[in-house]
Structure formats: C-alpha cells, structure tokens
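Issue: ligand-bound run for iron/sulfur cluster - logging full I/O for the record.

Environment: standard queue, default settings, no custom constraints.

Inputs:
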Amino acid sequence: MPDTAPLARLRLDPAKFQDPAVTADGAARATVRLGRLKTLWFNTGTLCNITCRNCYIESSPLNDRLAYLTLADITGFLDEIERDGLPTQEIGFTGGEPFMNPAILEMLELTLGRGFSTLVLTNAMLPMWHLRRDLEALRARHGDRLAIRVSLDHYTPAGHEAVRGQGTWPPAIRGLKWLSDAGFSPHVASRSLSGEGEPAMRRGFARLFSDFAIAVDASRPPALVLFPEMDAQADVPEITTQCWHLLGKSPEDVMCASQRMVVRRRGAARPAVVACTLLPYDPRFELGATLADASGPVALNHPHCARFCVLGGGSCSQG
Ligand code: SF4
Ligand code: SF4
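Outputs:
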C-alpha cells in the first residue's frame, strides 16, 4: 500500500485562515497598513476570450461574476484621487481580458488624459488585435505612459498551449510582435508552471524574443515578470506579526500596502474596492465603496497572502 501521508500533509489545514485577528495556533495575525496608494487597479470584468488552466480569477468566455466596469465607474474613483490629493500615479487595468470591455478605449483615454501612467494586462489575442489602430492613436497622443503587459505562460508553443489551449500561441505571438514593432516596449508576464528555475525561464524567453525580434529584455525583471504559481488547496503557513522579522521582510513590500482594486460584482448597484488583484471574490477582502472606505489595514487571512505575497514575493504592478 503506498504511503499517502506526505500527500495528506499537503492539503490546507481547514483550521487556518479563519479568524482575521489570530492564526489557528493562537498567534497574532499579520496585518498590512495602506501607506501610499501608488497603484489603483480596475478589474474591467472577468469575461475572457479563452479559458486558461489555473487562471487565478477563473476567467472564461462565460464567467461574468465581475461585470464590465463602466466609464462612469472609473471616473468616480479618479475624481476621488484628485479631490483627496492621493499620491496615486499608476492606474492598472486587468480582467478577464480588458480589451473585451466595450468602454476600454474611453477608459484609457480618460486615465492617460488625466496624467496617470496606465498599465493594461492582456493576452494580446484577437480583442487587442482588433483595437490596434486605436491603440496606436492613443500611443501617439500619450507616449510611454501607456504600458501593455502580455501574458505568455511559457516560451514554447507547447508549454503555452498546455495552459491556454490549442491555437492560443500564434495570435498571442502575433500581438506581442505587433506591440514591439509599433514601439510599445511591451512587458511580458509568465508563471512558474513548468518547474524550471528562473535562469532557465529567462534564457528560454530570451531565445524566443531574439527569434521573433521582439524588443523585451528577458534578463530584466520588470520587462519579464515571472510569477510564482499558486495552489489554494496546498497547505501553507499563516503569517503572524513575528514573521516579518523572522523572514526579513517588511509589510510595506506587500501589494496591499500600496495598491487597491475596483470591481463591480454581477448585479451590484455600484463598484466596490477590494484589497488587491488576487482576491476579487472573497467578501472578507471587500473594503468599501470608496478609496477612503478602503484605506484601513488588511488582515493577511488567505493562503494567497502567505504563498504569493509574503513567501513568494509577488506583485502585479510595474515596479
Ligand atoms: S488570458 Fe488571463 S484572464 Fe483570460 S483565462 Fe487566461 S489567465 Fe485568465
Ligand atoms: S493576497 Fe497579498 S496583496 Fe492580497 S490581501 Fe493578501 S497579502 Fe495583501
């Protein structure tokens, strides 16, 4: 009979991540205070043109749990930033596939026109391709303040399509190549799904970019971001107030110390602000209707907080 104990130990202990104040073994749970709100994300909606394996937000052509944000939705938050003199410099758009939102061009014009650096995360497939002339015009008006980051799940067609589905590689490479040729200086994000180490991943992407003459520096982390893979079912330690010192980390380095995300739940009367891009559905991380409401501390009461942010060091923005 095989020894199943090691497998059983990997499953998340159900006693963990229950109480925002204390961990399962009674220690004080770590919290993160919002310092400066540097980046405000807008989740444009969870609909996507494809269905990837392990998409952390479970996007697909059918998932509309997060509805399309409207121009009026985002205008209210930009007005709040201006009115309250918040230090926000960067606006991020994520999804789903942001270029599927019917108002995306107006939203980009608005954030760029108000002087924000604006980052869009995309799979660079057909929804972006259809808008390429409009994107060129936006770039002509606003220059490098419009940044686009393309998700590629591996540097080989087979590795990418194992995650994203058959036929997803050619349109993604076509889109990325177009961005590069059009002078967008695109960035690329990938996930550590293959089990290769970071140096091997960077070498593989460097070969890809060289073969296609795509202007992305694979050796530079902001240009090629490699995210740790997340598995919410696997066991992970809870983060206590003692952990910062023990791990040599600072709460200020965690995403929710400087970022928030706006979502509109399907059927909701108005948008809501959540702690970060990683936890759009968990009601414990919904902080309020305005940025002021959402400026309180966040208890690190989810496995993602430990695995992705504190132990894995992930961040979604440019820096
Ligand atoms: S392209 Fe991005 S948002 Fe769409 S399913 Fe894949 S990982 Fe999710
Ligand atoms: S997942 Fe990360 S950014 Fe989100 S609340 Fe937890 S620690 Fe903060």
